């Protein structure tokens, strides 16, 4: 090969390297930054998610600066190992306002509950941290803030704001973990079939209704476990604005089974006086009382008194409760918790 041929070959090789580097600009563990005011590379969270490589084998952080991000976000199945971290939990807000009765332009029919999400996660090993996810719709129907079907998804120090159906844990067999979170809603505002552990979370009723509506599959050992959580309600003027008829909130149930074998356990929790003595509801179907798995252990507060509890709910013994740990509930796999 003559001199000019070698030069040409070297130039082509260099161009290939440059092209490869350009194509893989974001294929590395470097943090991506999002700022609504335009001071970072991305202005929207969805834009940063879009550039992440499919099936990453490294941990990728998307850091979201304080601001209000009005966007509807979908984290798809091919994305893994992503952490979306807000600068400030209460001032980094992802918000949308769909509800079940919004008409779809293409059909003219209501969109239904499962399309109303603000954030939907079907990817696995996804973490949200220090951020608020809100469905700010009018109270005209079900309105999901977080729809999570992904496996091994973690939510740390987050706020979930909404009314009916705030959090949908949407896939049987999927494992999810919430720690130090604030979750509010009106009716069935934590619902679905997943296996979920809630640790040290504040759960806030905004009206007389139901906290949970588990639809745990029959062959799934665990559904919802609330440990060291605080179950309270709005009070005063806030309650008068939110509750039906402007009355104080004082008629709430811990849960009702969306499907017959719903599993929900509250242990070591503080239950406010707004929780009814019955504690649990059968969703108007006596047959559910034979199958629903509703349990309590070592709770405290006015709403924790066991006198008046429905006969078909179970109070665990100390020995039984000691066996229920994250390792047990998650089938021995806890490395993904962080």
UniProtKB/TrEMBL annotation:
Protein name as catalogued: Pectin esterase
Species: Palleniella muris
């Amino acid at each position: 090969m003559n001199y000019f041929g070698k030069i040409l070959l070297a130039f082509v090789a260099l161009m290939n390297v440059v092209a490869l580097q350009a194509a893989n600009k974001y294929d590395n563990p470097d943090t991506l930054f999002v700022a609504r005011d335009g001071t970072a590379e991305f202005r929207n969270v969805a834009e940063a998610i879009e550039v992440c490589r499919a099936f990453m084998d490294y941990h990728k952080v998307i850091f979201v600066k304080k601001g209000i991000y009005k966007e509807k976000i979908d984290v798809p199945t091919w994305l893994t190992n992503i952490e979306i971290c807000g600068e400030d939990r209460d001032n980094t807000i992802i918000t949308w306002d769909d509800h079940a009765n919004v008409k779809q332009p293409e059909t003219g029919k209501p969109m239904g509950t499962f399309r109303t999400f603000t954030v939907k996660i079907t990817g696995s090993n996804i973490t949200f941290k220090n951020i608020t996810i809100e469905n700010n719709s009018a109270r005209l129907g079900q309105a999901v803030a977080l729809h999570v079907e992904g496996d091994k998804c973690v939510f740390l120090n987050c706020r979930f704001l909404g009314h009916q159906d705030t959090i949908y844990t949407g896939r049987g067999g999927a494992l999810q973990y919430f720690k130090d979170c604030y979750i509010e809603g009106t009716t069935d505002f934590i619902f679905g079939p997943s296996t979920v552990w809630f640790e040290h979370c504040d759960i806030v009723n905004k009206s007389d209704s139901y906290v949970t509506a588990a639809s745990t599959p029959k062959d799934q050992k665990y559904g919802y476990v609330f440990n060291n959580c605080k179950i309270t309600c709005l009070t005063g003027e806030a309650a008068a604005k939110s509750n039906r008829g402007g009355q104080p909130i004082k008629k709430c149930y811990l849960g009702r089974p969306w499907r017959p074998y719903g599993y929900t356990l509250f242990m070591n929790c503080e239950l406010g006086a707004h929780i009814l003595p019955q504690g649990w509801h059968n969703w108007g179907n006596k047959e559910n009382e034979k199958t629903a798995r509703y349990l309590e252990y070592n709770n405290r507060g006015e709403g924790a008194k066991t006198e008046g509890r429905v006969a078909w709910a179970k109070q665990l013994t100390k020995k039984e409760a000691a066996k229920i740990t994250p390792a047990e509930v998650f089938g021995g796999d806890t490395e993904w918790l962080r």
